[in-house]
């Protein structure tokens, strides 16, 4: 019988600065292939045609007020904020912990300072549309997407390399 690996603990680094003890939650982007319906002559019905990728968005929340993150708001670079999330996942079956690292490049487009009340818990939330995403498990890159450079690697295969080779010459 197997048991799922669950996140046991995590840390976030924003532009290299550690937020250990401060990071509350991180939401990875949904990975979605953009599709369009196509039904040509002779076909029984439509199929979904791959039209590239949809935009990606991540979010993170911090346990309280973080002035250094607020100062990053409004950067003019589409990948001006770099975040590295490090998580330790482990199944409760005696197996070794698994290292999962998520690297994103984007910029804060929304900062929600939440509610502030003396004596109550506070939390700030940050929305990050992405230009870059990479997920590494135990040192192995599982997926890498670079919207600006046209890179779409899954399990070591660049699924967009052929198209980039054609349009780059």
Structure overview:
The structure is a single chain. The protein has 169 residues and is mostly beta strands. It has one domain: Beta Barrel (Elongation Factor Tu (Ef-tu), domain 3). It contains 2 helices and 13 strands, in the order ββββββαβββββββα. It has helices at residues 67-70, 161-168, and strands spanning 6-14, 17-18, 23-27, 33-38, 47-53, 56-62, 81-90, 98-106, 110-112, 124-137, 140-146, 151-154, 157-158. A hairpin with a 2-residue loop joins strand 10 (124-137) and strand 11 (140-146). The chain is globular.
Short summary:
The protein has helices at 67-70, 161-168; strands spanning 6-14, 17-18, 23-27, 33-38, 47-53, 56-62, 81-90, 98-106, 110-112, 124-137, 140-146, 151-154, 157-158.
Secondary structure layout plus pairing:
Blueprint (H helix, E strand, L loop, with lengths): L5 E9 L2 E2 L4 E5 L5 E6 L8 E7 L2 E7 L4 H4 L10 E10 L7 E9 L3 E3 L11 E14 L2 E7 L4 E4 L2 E2 L2 H8 L1
Antiparallel strand pairs: 1-2, 1-7, 3-6, 4-5, 6-10, 7-8, 8-10, 9-10, 10-11, 11-12, 12-13
Tags for this entry?
13 strands, 50% strand, eleven-stranded antiparallel β-sheet, 2 helices, 169 residues, mainly beta, single chain, Elongation Factor Tu (Ef-tu), domain 3
